[in-house]
Each structure stands twice: as C-alpha cells, then as structure tokens.
C-alpha cells in the first residue's frame, strides 16, 4: 500500500474535492440541458425535414459519434485514473503534464481524421445511393470536423471534472447541444425546410465554441500549477495505459450502435428514422445513470486512492439507487403516455413507441448494474473489460442479425436489449470477482441491509477490510 500513499513532502494544495451531491447537481445540469436540447431537436427536426432526411441525420450523428470515440483514444476513462489520482496525491505538476499530453494526443489524431475523411470523401460516396451522393459529399467534411471537435470537447470536460472543476465541466458539456435545437427551431419559425448540411453546420458552430471555451476554462484552472512534477508524465506510459480503453470504447460504440449499423446497411431510411427516434427516447431512461457515473468516476478514484472506503460505498449506492430508480419511473411514464403523445405529434412514427418499450426495458435493467463497467475502466481492469465487451459483442452481433432476419426491426430491438443486459451482467460479475465490490442494485440492496446498525459500511472481505488493488 505504500505506493498508493499521498505525497506529502513539498506537496501543493490540491483543488477541493466536491461532494457527490455537488458533482451530481452539476452533471445533472449539463445532461439536463443536453436532454432538453436533444429532445427538442428530435421533436422539431421531423417537422422541418422529411423522413429520408431524418434517416440521413441519424446516420450522420452515428458517424460523428464514431469519429469522436476514436479521437478520444479512451482518455475519457483514463483521465480519472491518471489525472484525478495525481491531484489526490497533491502532485499538481504531474496533473498538468498529463493534461497537456492528453490534449496533444487528442488534437493530433483529430487533425489526421479530418484530413483523411476530406481526402477520401469522393471515394466514400461512390458506395452510396447516387441520389444521396451530392448530400453526403457536402456533409462528410463537416461531419469529420464535428467528430474531431466533439472528441476534444469530451476530453476537456473530463479534465475539468478530474481537477474537480465540476461547474465549468457542466457548462461546457451543455453548450454544443443547444445549437442544433436552435437551428431546427429557427427553421420552423420562419417556415422553411431544413437541410442536413444546415443542421450539421449549426452543430459545428457549437463545437468550435465549446473547444475554445473549454481550453480557456482549463487554463484558468491550472495556470498557477507548478511545471515540475514529483512523478513526471511520460507520453508513452499515458498512451500505453489508455489503449485498452480505446479498444473497449470502440467496441462498446460498435455494440451500442450495432442495430443502427444493421439498419443502415440492410434496412430503409424510414426504418432508420423510426428506430433512431426510439433510440433517443430510450436513451433518456439510462441518462440518470450516465449523469451519476459522470459525477462519480473522479470521486471514486479519489476515494480509493485515499482509502476512504465509507465515501466510496456511499457513492456506489447513490449511483445505482438513483440511476435505476429514475430509469424505472421514466419507463413507466413513457409506457403510459408515449403512444398518445406520438400520435398527436406525428402519427408516422407510432412504431417508435413499441421499439422504445423494448429498448427502454434493456436500459432499465442496464441501470440496475450501477457503475460496474466504469469501475473496471477507471480502476485498472481495462483489459478484462475489453475482453468482456468483445465476447458479449460477438454474441449480440449474431443475435441482432438473426433478430432482424426473422423479426424485422422489432426482432432487432429485442436482440439489442438482450445484448445490453448481458454485457452489464458480465461487468457486475467481474467487479465482484476483481474488487470484492458489487455495485449492482441487488448488491447494494443487500449491502444496505447488512450495514444497518453498524458504524461502518460493508467492505471487502480482505485482511485489512480494503478493496483489492
């Protein structure tokens, strides 16, 4: 345990650690703005863009998310394990060096991606429907730029959270999402028709603003930190630690969007539009868990680095109880009023109601797994997390193809939901085996009963009552 002890000699004063309530409130604000803007965009765009255009927009969003995931290099998960750990040990020089290295890697890869996509655009569109080529040749350069900037924004947001600037991180995360909804609202207000390029250009403006503001916020936060470090950051070590996270996030991205990839390849644009809308509705149900995990990740690393076991278990309980509870309430609420709402809004999308129920059930059960997957990736078990993702992805791919072949979009939704639940179940089992901690709803429920009447929370059954490292 000596290698995990905080530095004391010559240590600088680290940033104050926020409470989980403060961090959660900030994360809730940012995700709340994103949810409202995204929901508004999903409701407004189908009113100003035809169903084929909506399908193209959802595919463009899929490409942007894929490029952003790639350019992040897995840093959104390795930042808490590295930067927050350095802050917890009062080595602010190392935290500063790590941040600079991470930003350089993400920026450099983003530039490469933009150049490659722009150069390859004429070749890429040759594989598309001739009627869509003009649209995509104009959209692909914008998509590449948005993906690279979105990646950099996500990295900066995590850096701000890692150094406990939770309010700045929340404000930055919320900014870019406003522009697309504002564009759709403006087009509707003036009675015009939207275009794919116009919607993407609005997102691009928001992305540029987010990166500019984010760099300024992080500079203000860290400008006075020392340049010397007790343990200097090495670029090769940073890259070596994050590569398992990169592979894991890429496979996770592919698995999370496997259904849309299948529809984009085998289905029609109308199916893509229906399914894409259902994905956005069902994503709202797991958003509370994402909010809780965003707030909890740096705090969980800090608590584990300082052996604050009581705080750690409190965080894990709040994540799963809050995430699963709100997800269940949202699911029940949508089941009750969703069909009537869609019928009044746009009757052409009524199939999205049933698809949302199927996908949403998978997300509710996913929320019952708590922070299991995040813990594996921020506590040094990235390789096993990657193996789990690869294994469950292979099974899910087969099930989704069979589901779509024999059951159409509804069979696809059932298979995707099953794969979602299977993966989080494996994450929970691994967290229990590796760290002697069960972050799932049943595990934390049992722990809460076991700890009643005790002064301390339940801890791992090791000789010192501490988590396995």
From TrEMBL:
Segments crossing the lipid bilayer = 28-48, 54-77, 98-124, 136-157, 169-190, 196-221, 242-263, 283-303, 315-342, 354-378, 385-404
Where does the protein end up?
A: Cell membrane
Keyword Membrane in the entry? The reply is: yes
Gene Ontology CC terms, in alphabetical order: plasma membrane
- Its domain of life reads Bacteria
Q: What is its main location?
A: membrane
Q: Which InterPro entries match?
A: Poly_Biosynth_Transport (IPR050833)
Q: How does it sit in the membrane?
A: Multi-pass membrane protein
- Protein's UniProt keywords contain Cell membrane: yes
Keyword annotations for this protein, in alphabetical order, are: Cell membrane, Membrane, Plasmid, Transmembrane, Transmembrane helix
User: Which Pfam families does the record associate with it?
Assistant: Polysacc_synt_3 (PF13440)
* PANTHER family, per database record: PSMA PROTEIN (PTHR30250:SF26), PST FAMILY PREDICTED COLANIC ACID TRANSPORTER (PTHR30250)
Q: What is the protein name stated in its UniProt record? A: Oligosaccharide flippase family protein
| Organism, scientific name | Bradyrhizobium barranii subsp. barranii
């Amino acid at each position: 345990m000596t290698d995990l002890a905080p530095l004391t000699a010559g240590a600088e004063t680290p940033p104050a650690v926020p409470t989980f309530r403060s961090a959660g409130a900030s994360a809730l604000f940012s995700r709340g703005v994103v949810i409202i803007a995204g929901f508004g965009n999903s409701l407004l765009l189908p009113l100003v863009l035809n169903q084929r255009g909506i399908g193209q927009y959802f595919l463009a969003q899929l490409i942007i998310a894929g490029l952003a995931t790639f350019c992040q290099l897995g840093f959104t998960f390795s930042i808490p394990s590295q930067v927050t750990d350095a802050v917890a040990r009062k080595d602010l020089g190392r935290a500063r060096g790590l941040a600079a290295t991470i930003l350089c890697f993400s920026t450099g890869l983003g530039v490469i991606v933009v150049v490659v996509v722009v150069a390859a655009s004429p070749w890429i569109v040759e594989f598309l429907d001739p009627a869509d080529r003009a649209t995509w040749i104009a959209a692909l350069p914008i998509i590449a730029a948005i993906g690279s900037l979105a990646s950099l924004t996500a990295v900066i947001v995590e850096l701000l959270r890692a150094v406990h600037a939770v309010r700045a991180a929340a404000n930055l995360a919320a900014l870019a999402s406003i522009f697309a909804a504002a564009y759709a609202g403006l087009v509707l207000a003036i009675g015009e028709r939207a275009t794919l390029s116009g919607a993407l250009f609005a997102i691009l403006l928001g992305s540029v603003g987010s990166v500019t503001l984010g760099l300024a916020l992080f500079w203000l936060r860290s400008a006075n930190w020392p340049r010397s470090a007790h343990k200097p950051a090495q670029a090769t070590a940073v890259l070596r630690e994050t590569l398992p996270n990169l592979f894991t996030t890429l496979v996770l991205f592919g698995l999370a969007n496997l259904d849309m990839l299948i529809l984009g390849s085998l289905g029609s644009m109308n199916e893509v539009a229906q399914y894409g809308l259902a994905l956005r509705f069902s994503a709202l149900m797991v958003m509370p868990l994402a909010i809780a995990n965003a707030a909890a990740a740096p705090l969980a690393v800090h608590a584990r680095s300082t052996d604050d076991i009581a705080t750690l278990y409190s965080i894990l309980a709040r994540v799963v109880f809050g995430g699963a509870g709100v997800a269940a309430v949202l699911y029940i609420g949508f089941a009750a009023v969703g069909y009537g709402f869609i019928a009044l809004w746009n009757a052409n999308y009524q199939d999205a109601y049933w698809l949302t129920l199927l996908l949403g059930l998978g997300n509710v059960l996913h929320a019952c797994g708590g922070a299991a997957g995040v813990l594996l990736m921020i506590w040094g078990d990235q390789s096993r997390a990657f193996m789990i993702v690869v294994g469950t992805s292979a099974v899910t791919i087969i099930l989704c193809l069979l589901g779509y072949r024999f059951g159409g979009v509804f069979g696809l939704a059932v298979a995707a939901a099953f794969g979602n639940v299977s993966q989080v179940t494996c994450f929970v089992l691994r967290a229990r085996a590796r760290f002697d901690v069960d972050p799932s709803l049943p595990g934390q429920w049992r722990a809460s009963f076991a700890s009643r009447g005790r002064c301390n929370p339940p801890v791992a059954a090791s000789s010192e009552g501490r988590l396995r490292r």
